[in-house]
Design a protein that fits this description.
Largest sheet: 6 strands, parallel
Number of helices: 12
Number of strands: 12
Shape: elongated
Length: 343
Amino acid sequence: MPNIRKVAELAGVSVATVSRTLKTPEVVSPETRDRVLAAVERAGYRPNLMAVQFRSRRTRNLVVLVPVIANVFFARVISGIQEAAQAFDYRVLLCDTLGREEVETAYAELVHAHQADGVIQLRAFNPFEKACADGQAPPPMVNACEVLDAPPCPTVRLDNRAAARAMTEHLLALGHRRIGLIKGPQGSPLTRERIAGYEDAMQAAGIAPDPTLLCRGNFTLQAGYQAAGELLALPDRPTAIFCENDEMAIGAIQRIRQDGLRVPQDLSVAGFDDIPFAAYCDPPLTTIAQPAEEFGRRAVAMLVALFEDRTLPEPHVVLPYDLIVRGSTAPAPTGSGQPQPTP
């Protein structure tokens, strides 16, 4: 196998220049860089990655902990992570944890074992908590999307409370007063924040909280379908349902139709996330759009900055949201003759 000395000979430069070109090409003149890369190609040289990692103490691997990889929103976040990782010349080690702490902790140990450089955690759990309690220095980590209440690391998040309030205010402005809420997983910070935003808007409108209008969910189509059935079975059913993600909203629309009601004429439905399906379901879904891919891109950029010991100008980034109004919401039905679910 050709070695680095052969490449230096072919390029007419020193071994140090070849090494510098391969590790930090931006510091080498374009002419020299082109000569070295051409010589690498001619020689068929492949760097010894193990040796490079040993000298630099970098693996160029990033561990990404995803609670549910089948979730469409997280799939978009991963796309942003992959795009940014490639731009920074890092590889992604993806783990579908299903929210299991022992799995997250095991994958995070790859950093302590020098098989990865850092972690992007997309759930509100610190996989290094025990190690830090034992006196070990916290490895590089960025917490994105669902963030810890007291994060020990940089974060990328949305103002979920403000976004949920904006959606609830939209429904109130349409004349809805009985607004059902299909919640996310119990114990999730996202769920708590979105409930708080819903309650902020209802209380500001002078509407007392009605616990029967809050139904448990878990961000799945099935959960939205089942919870909508519970709300439709109430003696005084809601005229609008706000779901804490789009998948539950799509499930809810299916159940509403099966019960003989129309969306939005009889019952408005709103979601959260603006997944690709939201604009193409029937009717198109009113929702909160959050920049999923940007979560991933920002998390990678922040993690790389930690590797390079750079000070982050914004260690806790809050990304913007948009209220997207589509055909699934309309003014509340008037009169006492509202259609009721069929038996």
